[in-house]
Amino acid sequence: MGSTCVRIAIDAMGGDHAPGEIVAGALRARDELGVEVLLVGAPQQIEAVLPPKTNLGQVQIVPAEDAIAMDEEPLSGIRRKPKASINVAMDLVKQGQADAVISAGHSGAAMAAALLRLGRLPGIDRPAIGAVFPTMIASKQVLILDVGANVDCRPKFLEQFAVMGSVYSQYVLGVPEPKIGLLNIGEEDCKGNDAAVRAHQLLRENSQIAFVGNAEGRDVLSGQFDVIVCDGFVGNVLLKFAEAIGEVMLQIVREELPQGLHGQLGTAILKPNLRRIKQRMDHAEHGGALLLGVDGICIIGHGSSQAPSIYNAIRLAKEAVDNQVLQRIQSKYQSKSSGQLLPENSQ
C-alpha cells in the first residue's frame, strides 16, 4: 500500500443514522486518530451531510449504487446487489486499497460479504464475532466470542475461537497471557452437553492458549477471564442482555441523582465519576465487534451507532491493523503444522 497511514473503508449507508452520524464519526476519527477514511455510498447523500467548508484531506468518497436494507435476507441481498455499499467497501480491502472495513448496517450482510469477498483465514473453519465487555475490575475487559456469527458450534470451532481471541486479547487489549474460559453451566470438567465436554478437552490440550476452565454466567463480568468462548446463539443473547443491563444501570443512576439545586451541585461534583461509569458500561464506547477469522479486518457496529460509536469502531480497526492481528493469527496456525490446529475436516 502506497501510504503508511491506516486507511479505513466505511459503509456510509449502513445503520439507523446513516449517513449523517457515520460521516461525523469518520471525520472525528480522521482528525483525532490520523487515519484516512473512505466513505462508501451515494455521493450526493454523503456530501449533503458534510459540515460546511469541510476539509476533505484524508477523506475520499467512493461511489456505491445501492445499500442492503435491514429487512433483506443477507446472502441474497449481497448477491443481487454487487454494487451495494457493503460489497464495495469489502472489495476495497480485498484489492488492498483499504486496511479495514466498518459497517453499522445489516450485520448478517456484513458477515456474508466478508466471507464471500475476503474469504476465511487458512486453518479457520468458521469466523467469530468478538465483543468486548467491561468487568468488575476497572482496568480489565473480557472478550466474548462468538456473539452471533455461528448459531451452532462444533468443539473445534470453539477451540479456534479461543486461539483467535487469545491473539486479539494479547496484542490489542494488552493482556500478556490471556486467561481463556469456556462458557458453561458449571465449573466441573464434566458439566454441559457433549459438545461442551469435548470442547473443554480440546481447549485443555491446546498448548497455545492459557485455558483455565469453565466459566459460569456469574463469572463473565468478574474479571477472572480475559477471553470467554461460546456458540453464537448464547453469545448473542449474552451481548444483548449485557447492553440492556448497561442502559438500565445508567438510567437508574440518572433517576436517583438528587433533584433541584442540591442535585445540580452533586451532579457537578460527580461529573468525572459519572463520565467514567458511562465509559465502562455504555456499549457505544466500545465501537463494535471484530469479525475474527476472515482475511481482512472487519468491524461490525451496532445498528443504532451514532458518531461516538463510529469513532470508536475506527479506533478499534486501527488498533487491529497496527498490531497485525491477522498476521499473528496466521502465524499461530502455521506454527502448528504437526496437527493440533488443523482444519476441522482433518479430524
UniProtKB/TrEMBL annotation:
CC terms in the record's Gene Ontology section: cytoplasm
Coiled-coil segments on the chain, per record: none
Keywords: Cytoplasm, Lipid biosynthesis, Lipid metabolism, Phospholipid biosynthesis, Phospholipid metabolism, Transferase
Pathway given in the UniProt record: Lipid metabolism; phospholipid metabolism
GO molecular function: phosphate:acyl-[acyl carrier protein] acyltransferase activity
Domain of life: Bacteria
Catalytically driven reaction(s): a fatty acyl-[ACP] + phosphate = an acyl phosphate + holo-[ACP]
The enzyme's E.C. designation: 2.3.1.274
Sequence similarity: Belongs to the PlsX family.
UniProt subunit comment: Homodimer. Probably interacts with PlsY.
Job description of the protein: Catalyzes the reversible formation of acyl-phosphate (acyl-PO(4)) from acyl-[acyl-carrier-protein] (acyl-ACP). This enzyme utilizes acyl-ACP as fatty acyl donor, but not acyl-CoA.
Name of the molecule in the record: Phosphate acyltransferase
Protein's organism: Fischerella muscicola CCMEE 5323
